[in-house]
Fold this protein.
Amino acid sequence: MKKFLLLAMGIMSLLSVAAMADDYDINESTGDQVQMDNTYESDYNFGGNSFGVGLGIGRYKSLYKGVGDKNYPVPLLDIQYGDFYVKGTDIGYGVLENDNFTMSVFLNPLGGFKVKGSDLGSGYNNIDDREYQAMFGVRMDINTPLDGMKTGIAVSAGEHGAKGRVGLYKAYEVMPKFVIVPSVHLMYYSSDFTDYYFGVDSSETYINRPGNYKLRSSYTPDAAYSYGASLVGEYRFTDRIALTAFLGAEKYSSEITDSPIVENDVIYSVGIGAKYYF
């Protein structure tokens, strides 16, 4: 119990560090923006115990106008305690498992994109801040007929809309201590989600806020999608210490990229970190 309480305190500390990252969906940039343990769907073996905690640093090019390249902290959480798990920023509980299928419910307290209006370029930087949202969801991981390949499906929703994700991934053991996991995925974002994070309200336009002289009209996007690929690798120096690295890319649909506050349609990201296993 003491070990579990210490781990819980560590989880909250790492999530607090992650919350300092602006303009980034840390659960999505190359999949569910990037988080090294969650850019691919990892295996869930409910009923067992394993504890991995760490921290990394990532770099990406922002979606938003005038923000440019940014660094961000990446929580590296890989914890299984019976049917309870923490992967990245997902906190979940397994409800069903058999040889080919697992299902769980989860909470992501840092869902969505976070950006401060003041970080945007001149002419846009008097918009309202966009904040993270708590998102509740259901996740399924299914074995496919293809050798060793799995699919992960997740749907979640919060105060500012919903999103869904379908991904394919496969783990390759390059050598006994080195594993790589390539993956591809497709994301869906509801109209409420895209409107909150990428829409422009009439109250934010130039006529009401002269500082936003480049925002001449409001913008209300429809539902949108993105697709991407990533590569994650982990090297175990010892049974307790591992080095993790990732790289990935995400392309967003026109419903998002046509927003007057969005600059880029493709986001590239890279990062590295270390984990300690108890």
About this structure: Residues 11-24, 28-42 have pLDDT under 50 and may be disordered. The radius of gyration is 19 Å.
